Amino acid sequence: MESCQQSVANVTQVSPEAPYYVKGLVLGLSAYLIGIHLWTWVLTVSVFLGGRSDFRQLYTAGYMVRTGHSHELYEYNTQRHFQNQLVSPGDIALPFNHLAYEALLFVPFSLLSYRTAYFTLLGLNLTVLAITFKFLRPWMKNLAVIYRWLPPVMFLAFLPVAAALLQGQDSILLLTLLAASLVSLHSGRELAAGVLVGLGLFKFQIVIPIALLFLVWRRWRFSAGFVLAAILVGLLSLSLVGLSQVGVYFRSLLLMSLRLASPVDQFKYGISPALMPNLRGLLFGLLDRKFPVFWTQTLTIVVSLAVLVWVAMVPVRRVTESFLLAITTSVLVSYHLLIHDMSVLLIPIALTLSRFIEAEATGDRDGRILARAAALMFVAPLCESFIPDHFCVVAIPLGVFLFTLLRHISGIARGCVNNSIQGAFARLPKG
Question: Structure pTM?
Answer without folding.
Answer: 0.90
